[in-house]
User: What shape does this take?
Amino acid sequence: MVTLLGKTLDELQEVAVNAGLPRFAGKQLAEWLYKKRVVSFEEMTNISVKGRQTLKEKYTIGRTPPAAEAVSTDGTKKYLFLVNISNNNQLANSPASQPVESVYIPEDDRATICVSTQAGCKMRCRFCMTGTLGFHGNLSAADILNQVFSIPDSASLTNIVYMGEGEPCDNIDAVLRSIQILTADWGCGWSPRRITVSSVGFIPGLRKLIDEGECHIAISLHNPFAEERMPLMPIEKAYPISNVINTLRQYDWSHQRRVSFEYICFGGQNDTMRHAQGLKRLLNGLDCRINLIRYHEDPSSEGKLNSSNPEQMIWLRDWLNDNGITTTIRRSRGEDILAACGMLVNSLKR
Assistant: This one.
């Protein structure tokens, strides 16, 4: 069965024709899928009964509910989805059905979902629990959109961040397709300014993301010095952070579109005056902001990395702000259910 979720308007028009419907029915399909977000063909009441039956015989909507849920004391919710990655660049030794997690973060004036783009991750950042899973395959655009559409809180969402499991720029075609559907007039009609995509600095996909999309970009930085960043983030060897910054400098970030840097603070290892000055030199002249993040320790780790204390993070924030780099401290959410930054490791039981 072919999945309709994740198809573009042109593709849905072809689906309509193949099902014996007029071509304009493709726009009706898009409206049912992306605006009204139906889960069955029976709900598509402006399509003939015969047409709906033909569609049902050849296609599936592609919506599946979460397999498990956990709720944090701070209101954050984590969901487990089971995705079929048999046709999505799956590794030969990985089962077709893979678990992935996404996180719903409610706040006073906004509600954000953090979606996954891969099952596991190739990047193996030392501080990220997801890297311990290994890589098991890419998610399709349908898998990504299903995380947005199928959580119980979907109607309340105001923002989407591609910061869950995986490196979005390593699965860039599916990411861009999902963003196109979220932002197109015939799709969900969201402003691209409500969407942020995170990357460790995988430059080929990053360039395509900037060239073809209009969403915000967040780069995982974590250390301004290449020789210190490499043990934390192996991507530094292939795509040095200096090259990533030079790539970003080729674009205009002075308008509504924003580039930011994620910076997990490790006590005594990247939160000193030397590192603050290094950040200032590295980012000099680039219109950007830094989000400082408390390190969330892997409960099974040996404790070789420790978070900076709150006072040191406040000092670093203030020093960077005083030296011309807009910097904030991100509030930690969902740590008690392993939903905070770097903690997605498919801990929920089905």
